[in-house]
UniProtKB/TrEMBL annotation:
KW Hydrolase (keyword) present: yes
Domain L-asparaginase N-terminal: 3-186
GO MF annotations in UniProt: asparaginase activity
Family matches, as InterPro entries: AsnASE_II, Asp/glu_Ase-like_sf, Asparaginase/glutaminase-like, Asparaginase/glutaminase_AS2, Asparaginase_C, L-asparaginase_C, L-asparaginase_N, L-asparaginase_N_sf
GO BP terms in the entry: asparagine metabolic process
Keywords tagged on the record: Hydrolase
Annotated protein name in UniProt: Unannotated protein
UniProt source species: freshwater metagenome
Pfam family, one: Asparaginase_C
Family, per entry: Belongs to the asparaginase 1 family.
Chain coiled-coil ranges: none
Domain Asparaginase/glutaminase C-terminal span(s) in chain numbering: 202-301
Signal peptide (UniProt feature, chain positions): none
Length: 323
């Protein structure tokens, strides 16, 4: 059993020696976190904060994952900065897909630097390698593993920049956990298609009180897709209705996402507006999913169908009907 670790820098590799900051190589991180119950190979591909990464950088990391899997790795772990870990993990989910045979792919990192008196990185690495080497993790979603919790890449979000308990899958629960070096999972994985490429030039605009329609029109003009972060259940200010309708009529795939969770994909108001909902994806992930849909599909209708295969469904258990 061989797990391949791809080290990409981030807080987990950041070390202050009292004089200057340096980046610790992946082999050292893995060695310090050991021993491990499998063979481990290591590949350093980038250093520095993950906030510097572009989508092209994220795709290159996924290409390294694909190469490791093609070379026979039984699992892959990616050490990554936490600022954009959930986004690179979702790019991996889009490009790798989910099927019953794919070896585990697990992202991990840390909230404390390597030189911290009580670093959280070593335990996170141990848990991630244990998960990637476990047969029960085969055929599952791309995962994010921190603090002994396993999150699916499509729902995980960093919600606290000042705590080791920084990530959540809310309103969903985590897909599993690691206890004493052994991963356990709640539910079976859902198979999903894989994207073939990510299209460039899909802007993301956030609605705010008083936003002008001209701002949306300028960003949408001539583009195949655009994501607008809306309010609530995909509500947008009235001054945006006309520009959104015009963009949709011109052939642009207009996708509305929201900061709070809403699983809305298609409904009469959206259809009249000329837009579709992101199906529960955050605005950041909706943008990546639209890039994948447009990079994979030849027309807007097919791209919409592809996008909605990544929709999230959540039963809110309305309290008004509770006994």
């Amino acid at each position: 059993m061989t797990v391949h670790v791809i080290a990409t820098g981030g807080t987990i590799a950041s070390h202050f020696d009292g004089v200057e900051w340096t980046n610790i190589a992946g082999a050292q991180l893995v060695s310090e976190a050991g021993p491990h119950g499998c063979d481990v190979t290591v590949d350093d591909v980038a250093t520095g904060p993950s906030s510097n990464l572009t989508v092209h950088d994220m795709v290159r990391i996924v290409e390294r994952i694909q190469r490791a899997l093609a070379d026979g790795a039984d699992g892959v772990v990616i050490t990554h900065g936490t600022d954009t870990m959930e986004l690179t993990a979702f790019v991996a989910a889009l490009l790798l897909g989910v099927d019953g045979a794919r070896p585990p792919v697990v992202f991990t990192g840390s909230m404390r630097v390597h030189s911290h008196a009580q670093p959280d990185g070593p335990q996170n690495i141990r848990d991630a390698i244990a998960t990637a080497s476990d047969r029960s993790a085969v055929g599952r979603e791309v995962m994010v593993c921190l603090e002994g919790v396993l999150h699916a890449a499509d729902v995980v979000t960093k919600v606290n920049a000042n705590s080791v308990d920084a990530f959540t899958s809310a309103p969903f629960g985590p897909i599993g956990s690691v206890v004493d070096g052994h991963p356990g999972f709640r539910d079976p994985a859902i198979e999903r298609p894989k994207a073939t490429a990510l299209a460039d030039d899909v802007p993301l605009l956030t609605s705010y009180p008083g936003i002008g329609g001209a701002e949306f029109a300028r960003l949408a003009e001539g583009r195949r897709g655009i994501v607008l972060e809306a309010f609530g259940d995909l509500n947008v200010p009235q001054q945006l209705w006309g520009p959104i309708h015009a963009a949709g009529a011109a052939g642009t795939l207009v996708v509305l996402a929201s900061r709070p969770f809403t699983g809305t994909r298609v409904e009469d108001g959206l259809t009249m507006l000329g837009a579709v909902g992101a199906g529960g994806l955050s605005a950041q992930k909706a943008r990546l999913a639209v890039m994948a849909a447009l990079g994979t599909c030849a027309d807007r209708a097919a791209a919409t169908l592809f996008l909605h295969q990544f929709s999230l469904s959540y039963d809110a258990h309305d309290r008004s009907t509770a006994p």
